[in-house]
Amino acid sequence: MSSKPPTFSIVTCTWNSAATLADTLASVRAQTCHDVEHIFVDGGSTDGTLAMLDAYPGNKKLLRDVRGGISRAMNEGIAAASGEFIAHLHSDDYYASDDVLAHVAARLATSGCDWLFGSIAVLKNGAVSTPPALKPFSYFALASGKAFIPHPAVFVRRSLFARAGVFDERLKYAMDIDLWLRLAAFSLPATLDRPLAVFRDHPGSVSSANKVMAREEEFSVRRRHARHAPLAFAIYCVRYYKRMRALRRQH
């Protein structure tokens, strides 16, 4: 067996995920690019999740009984990874086609970038949406809230995490936005204008109260980074106050 590290480390966080995990596993196994390790970070599942993971073939690592929330789980996966690029594919999401990793590897090779993102399709009520075309990326667009980076479609060079840091485990909602702003301050991402993953939309999973708290935490995160693009943050503030007024009227 080769001692060369794999190109990709795919981190999947699980907790009682047996109902949806099979699609996640199948989508990784079906990839035409096989230069992959699959890391599972389980939060103490009591259903059939662990049995599914024990039976899963291939190059894998299983971290059991990791407590402390999703950010900590994702960070534990990053710490365990040996691949050149790391992606997080949660246990209710799956890759959109069997050539996703091949296309990502080719785009990373030609761009020379330290990270990349594409688009996601959304699975809702049994139908999969077609995502809109990606718009040109800039730090200004990210800082002003106009650029959306979908977590399941992000691939990050492991060495960039060493420079920019990992997920802030104090955050409950906006840990991904905080990380994207830190990564982009070091290195702008490449983009791949195609759906890389399918995200399951669970109706009613986020209450109005949670939406308010999520917006408030996002505002706090963006204020941390305002010095990098003060005008962009000012534009974001206008949009934030309009959205918060609309959310609070719903109560």
What does this structure look like?
By secondary structure, this protein is α/β, with parallel strands linked by helices. It has nine helices and nine strands. It is 41% helix and 20% strand. It is globular, with a radius of gyration of 18 Å. The relative contact order is 0.15. Residues 9-134 form the Glycosyltransferase 2-like domain. This is Glycosyltransferase 2-like domain-containing protein. InterPro entries: Glyco_trans_2-like (IPR001173), Nucleotide-diphossugar_trans (IPR029044).
Summarize this structure as a short list of keywords or feature phrases.
single chain; 251 residues; alpha/beta; Spore Coat Polysaccharide Biosynthesis Protein SpsA, Chain A; nine-stranded mixed beta sheet; 9 helices; 20% strand
